[in-house]
Protein 1
Amino acid sequence: MMINSENTPLIHRSDYQPLAYRITEIALDVHLDPENTEVSARLHFLRQNPEPVKEIHLDGEGLELLEIRRDGQLLSENSYVVNGAGLTLLNPEADFVLETRVRIHPAANSALSGLYHAGGQFLTQCEAEGFRRITYYQDRPDCLAKFTVTLHGPKDTCPVLLANGNCVAQGEDAQGFHWARWEDPYPKPAYLFAMVGGDLAAMRDTFTTQSGRQVALEIYVAERDLGACSQAMESLKRAMRWDEEVYGREYDLDRYMIVATDSFNMGAMENKGLNIFNSKYVLASPETATDTDYQGIESVIAHEYFHNWTGNRVTLRDWFQLSLKEGLTVFRDQEFSADMNSRGVQRIGDVRRLRAAQFPEDAGPLAHPVRPDAYSEINNFYTATVYEKGAELVRMLHTLLGKEGFRRGTDLYFERHDGHAVTIEDFVEALEDANHTDLSRFRTWYAQAGTPLVKAQGVYDPKAHTYTLTLSQSTPATPGQAHKEPVPIPVRMALINTQGEKTALDSRGDREKVLVLEEATQTWTFTEQPDPVIPSLLRGFSAPVRLENPLDDQSRSFLACVDDDPFNRWESTQELALQALLAGTQNPGTVQHFPDALERALAATLQDGAMDPAFRAELLSLPSEDYVGEQMAVIAVDAIHQARDALLSQIGHHFHDTWLNLYHDLAGAYARDGLSIGRRRLRNMALSYLVYSDRHREDDMTLHARQQYVQADNMTDRLAAFQLLVQHPLHDAEDILMDFYQKWQDYPLVIDKWFAIQAMAPRADALRHVQHLLVHSAFDWKVPNRVRAVLGAFTVNHTVFHAADGSGYAFFAEQIRRLDDINPQTAARLATPLSRWQRYDEVRQKAMIQALQLLAAKPHLSRDLAEVIQRAYP
Ligand code: 0A1
Ligand code: ZN
């Protein structure tokens, strides 16, 4: 596609060059002012090689250079060059001190990268390349320096001044300004730099490390939110303890600070000793946050904390290694959450997310390896592949090496590389060396894009009493990678007999095994199997693959009732429901057949009152519209929606009395323990099925929802009812919408939900309604959470976004054009659903391509959005 922007040059992994100069120390002096902030920087340069170099490039973007000195002397104009990409120093000495003074404009920074002023606070975001928007620097992760930062700010609006490390001095000057000096003893790359200035209150606590040091913990929020920080604080302490116990990693500074803001592009950022968080992952009270929100806080707080070792102490050589910190840290946070909550339910959620975001990415034009080979804009590579698939690779390594072997490997990794900027290769080597093993073939996982397909074929021989299992693998071609190699795939498996027991698989009596499928096809024979068996494969989802296991419905239904692997038990029910939904899409509009096998599986779960309610709720939920679409050659948007609606109402109707009993029995006082959370989840699921059952009945179950909406004493229950009412196709919920808004208008995170639930409602006038949301007085183009609440939610309102007349796409593209001028990173991310045009029918394809063309023709197209469009429609 012709792109209307200053082209999109690619940066290649193979072009990596080590630094010619290190910067050993940096001292920053910052005078905070929303309109004009001045930043003075003093950098100590040290040449790495004896040979002189012609020039040094320092990155810089949008900086107004006011002064520049080398070793104290003003620099003459012919010894440096300044342009849009930065500053080039000509004929530098072997070592020298560079001083610069620049002016920047935080209030005008709506991209939220670098230093910005939002909601009355000064904040920074430097990953990946934001530091160059603050001062001239070698803004790359292998440039590790010791930072000293002095912040000056007005006392009234900025009583709190924070930066990384320890506060070593503070004072006041004559003009009513005060200042604070911070020193971080650990050399770090610039992407981990942070500073904050604002009127903030702190929730304080302490943590005593395993070696007995006391660490001050501080969470900075607006004064009125102080009461909503306890989940964050408790999660932080649990994460600190867990990292000591499971990885032997202790915190290394005397102070750990977290700052919350409503204006943030992502979830949170692991800046050394000074995390900056989207307030969505800090603030929670039972009245304003759902159980899912609480869970999100626990996992993101842990994620950022775990980065202190996996990312900060051991950092990245270059951005192609991003998954070295992200894949590993996601794996660590998933395991932490599994230990804190229910392991089975956690795994199901992790796989759901992987399949919802990463599998489609891996199957489309934006597919890339976990360790990419080239990029234009690194911000576009904070993807589900780098994060979630990256975590799955680490999980497979954990499976292959075993818990102890993996720990030996990470111990060696930290020992070897502490304080260094390293590669994924270094990580794999440490695991190999610590275990005297060879992971050569495993490396292909990092280099190759695409989701492998594993096909299983099993034969039981009743005479020989053997069960023979043949597994084969293939990976579809992805952009730039036509040919694929086999990868080692750990397949955790068991054989289950007619009594529902796992049989012995070998003479040792093991009842579960990990088979490693390394070749294109391999066969395993299990002897001494006196009875027919059903294979339970890929238990715990032991590898990020698609599995084709040709079982009949009978066997699946059986596994759905007896399999002791929670993931596979869930998977069996999902597969039955998926088949029913796919069948439903074939005959849209007709009364749907509700298969016996699915009925039996659901009935067994519904009757099992002893089962963990959270797990029970998982077993009773249907695959998402997205997931169903993924399994089709052409995504039949409307048919999927109708089939799913129809099956929901059938299940609601068929088990009506059971749902109603559950709904009443599960009522209980609000509490935050795991059991209560599970009970709420299951109860709200019952309510949802009851409301769907209305279609078949005389009674009006929305009355229950209305009552619950009014009487709820917590946001989980209130929002569940609210969502059902707003998204119900027949009932008018204007009064409820007004009521909700009035109650919560002062709580941005709650109002985000109010926007999102409306933007997801498949109502007849949905597009017009979403247009209205964009002009609502509470809508704000500058706040990413708010923009995502409307535009992000709109893209999952499938029947509206994908309306056959193209109206959804056209509307959407217009909004993305507008957003690109304000916040390119968020615009590019939101635009990715358009890249999946090949998956739809011809009419929709045309309309999606038109939308992409509308974007491509935009004047001043950002590099972020340009790259997404370019790759979506080359
Ligand atoms: N490293 C953070 C995520 C993050 C990435 C980029 C950002 O701005 C462009 C902000 C945050 C994490 O993994 O949590
Ligand atoms: Zn991370």
Protein 2
Amino acid sequence: ERTPVTVIGLGAMGRALAGAFLDSGHPTTVWNRSPGRADALAARGAAVAATAAEAVTASPLVVVCLLDDASVHQVLDPVASTLTGRTLVNLTNGTPAQARETADWAAWHAADYLDGGIMATPPLIGRPEGFILYSGSRTAFDAHERTLAALARPSYLHSDPGRAALYDLALLSGMYGMFGGVYHALALVRSERVPAKEFAPLLEAWLTAMLPALHIDAAGADSGERTDADASIAMQATGYVNLLDTSRAQGVSTEMVEAMGALLNRAVAEDTSDLVGLLAAERAPAK
Ligand code: NDP
């Protein structure tokens, strides 16, 4: 007997989530602001609710995946009373503060709340590569873990509902930082008419070789010990000038790489190898 589920929001991600629930045999009810998005899901057996309230009342487990926090509240605030006694799983991208606020709002309406960060693209939903981070009600997670596993590998982080959003944004930060460097690298080789496709395998090999160094940086960030015995920060800051100068000489924008140069210079000035500590200095130390 599979748990009935409701999916609110049928964008690219919501449709993938609803499809994965259908594939694993869950009675699935869907709703979307604009009609027509549910047609293909209805053909696969989904029940299409006429209103958001009808969608919520159809299932004990309500998954919402909308554009942003504002859209979540636009849809759910008017139907809040229908959430009482149900579990709300919010897979909409947002901030830790928004997650905590929505958790308080859900508690006020006597709904169990899980906030989630989807670390997958729609084609990866229902497949083993992706994962979804959850935080908030442990009881809700334990009760629905098997159902949520239909979407992607579920990983529970913490009772603080904001933790999943924090991890999600930190993981995206790592991804965007890496791709910012990738785009600069490809622009640099293309500025001398080297096809990006020809250079890409070398870039992949280099990034793959360098990636494990993040564990050294992580350990250094936690311990405060110097981590630059093999590659001193001063040497890196000196070499980095060549990267910037060459970019300018080749007519390649330095917008993606200037910030790292500035951070290396600050580390030299402050005689530290703890780049993480320099960035995090404005915040209290981690608990
Ligand atoms: P889409 O842009 O494809 O879909 C957005 C959805 O939000 C639509 O269902 C849209 O309804 C709805 N919506 C927007 N504004 C409102 C509103 N004011 N009231 C009601 N409904 C509204 O986005 P995705 O499906 O790709 O993404 C959804 C969430 O999933 C986002 O938070 C995103 O960050 C997250 N995510 C997406 C990933 C991806 O690769 N796509 C990966 C990981 C997370 P309508 O059809 O009526 O416009």
